[in-house]
Amino acid sequence: KAGVTQTPRYLIKTRGQQVTLSCSPISGHRSVSWYQQTPGQGLQFLFEYFSETQRNKGNFPGRFSGRQFSNSRSEMNVSTLELGDSALYLCASSGGLAGGYNEQFFGPGTRLTVL
Amino acid sequence: QKEVEQDPGPLSVPEGAIVSLNCTYSNSAFQYFMWYRQYSRKGPELLMYTYSSGNKEDGRFTAQVDKSSKYISLFIRDSQPSDSATYLCAMSGNTGGFKTIFGAGTRLFVKA
């Protein structure tokens, strides 16, 4: 069974630009969560989608947004990039129902550098 | 105060040692407790998953949850150099639904 895939793996952008990251979950998984990982703040929850609906979101500004498609693939978008947005962005998929949500499988991440 | 506290280490042990990794938390609504292992430049990998209090064993790994003390542990027996990684605790529960809170991660080095 193929794992979670994320594209692109590496990205370099400049301040003020916007970026879109993509995540394909494990086949059959309907929940996709996004996280930001930085050395200073660790792994922080961005948002979670299940069947195209956002069920929860973390404490990030509105510049961070996401969506999920009918095939469970998900994208996240960051607009008006700031230097502090440089991070590893991780996506995780799970079955999504009750306890099954907690068995999350992570992708390799997209490393975003903002110059 | 963070919801989940985890000592970032680093923790350095000789090969074969028993490793103890711990997290404390403040939110009594947490019901699901996970441990992830993350190698450098990789995504986290789920190691252990427990619901509510108690122990769970899987090979050389044992996870313990003490909800009365709001304290969870991961023990690694017969540690190997290949166990060198960052270990993250994570929790979720009836905290507004489908949101996982991670600890800062403990960096572990196992010396051959």
Description:
The complex is a heterodimer of chains A (115) and B (112). Helix content of chain A is 0%, strand content 52%. The N and C termini of chain A lie far apart (37 Å). Chain A is built from no helices and 11 strands. With 112 residues, chain B is mainly β. In chain B, strands 2, 4, 5, 9, 10 and 11 form a 6-stranded mixed beta sheet that branches. A 5-stranded antiparallel beta sheet of chain B has the order 1-3-8-7-6, with no helix packed on it. The model of chain B has no long low-confidence stretch (mean pLDDT 92). At the A-B interface, strand 4, strand 5 and strand 10 of A face strand 4, strand 5 and strand 10 of B.
Q: Give the total of beta strands of chain A.
A: 11
What is the residue-averaged pLDDT of chain B? 92
SSE topology string of chain A:
EEEEEEEEEEE
Uncertain stretches of 5 or more adjacent residues of chain A:
none
User: Largest interface, and how many residues on either side?
Assistant: A-B, 26 and 22 residues
Mean pLDDT of chain A: 92
Q: What kind of oligomer do you see?
A: heterodimer
The major β-sheet of chain B equals: 6 strands, mixed
The percentage helix of chain A is under 10%
- Overall 3D shape of chain A: globular
What structural category do the secondary elements of chain A indicate?
mainly beta
The number of helical segments of chain A is 0
Helix count of chain B equals 0
Summarize the structure.
Chain A is mainly β. Chain A is 0% helix and 52% strand. By secondary structure, chain B is mostly beta strands.
Record keyword descriptors for this entry.
heterodimer; A: 115 residues; mainly beta; 7-stranded mixed sheet; globular; B: 112 residues; 5-stranded antiparallel sheet; 0% helix
